Amino acid sequence: EENYDENQSDFPPDFPEFDKQIKNALEKCSNKVFIKLNWSSPKDAYWSLNRLFCQRLSDVYILLRSSDFINHDLNEAFE
Q1: Distance of alpha carbon 12 from alpha carbon 79, whole angstroms
Q2: What pLDDT was estimated at residue 71?
Q3: How far apart are CA 77 and CA 56, in angstroms?
Q4: What is the per-residue pLDDT for 64?
Q5: What element of type H or E holds 34?
Q6: Comparing C-alpha atoms, which of 19, 73, 68 is closest to residue 47?
Q7: Alpha helices, DSSP H only, in the chain?
Q8: What share of the chain is helix, strand, coil (3-state, %, to 5)?
Q9: What tens digit of pLDDT does each residue of 8-63 get?
């Protein structure tokens, strides 16, 4: 296969401690939170959930992954 990356795993990354912290924050805030980084929020990813608040862990990851603003902050902020 041409596009095979031997460093790529067949399994998605796993962040159990981070997941636990997010779940605890969600519970503390009655499962309705607006997420953001220090610089920006994923407001451009509204289309992915048809809302900007998160009710569960998967919502957090969907918004973070779908946002060009977040991608820029994490990968290109200082270029």
Answers
A1: 28
A2: 94
A3: 28
A4: 94
A5: strand 33-34
A6: 68
A7: 16-28, 46-49, 57-66, 68-75
A8: 50, 5, 45
A9: 667 878 889 999 999 999 999 999 999 999 889 999 999 999 999 999 999 999 99
Q: Is the pLDDT of residue 7 over 80?
A: no
Instruction: Identify the pLDDT of residue 3.
Output: 60
Q: Rounded to an integer, what distance in angstroms lies between the CA atom of residue 39 and that of residue 78?
A: 12
Burial class (CB in 10 A: 0-12, 13-18, 19+), 30: exposed
Instruction: List CB contacts of 42: < 8 A, sequence separation 6 or more.
Output: 35, 36, 52, 63, 64, 66, 67, 69, 70
Residue type, 4: Y
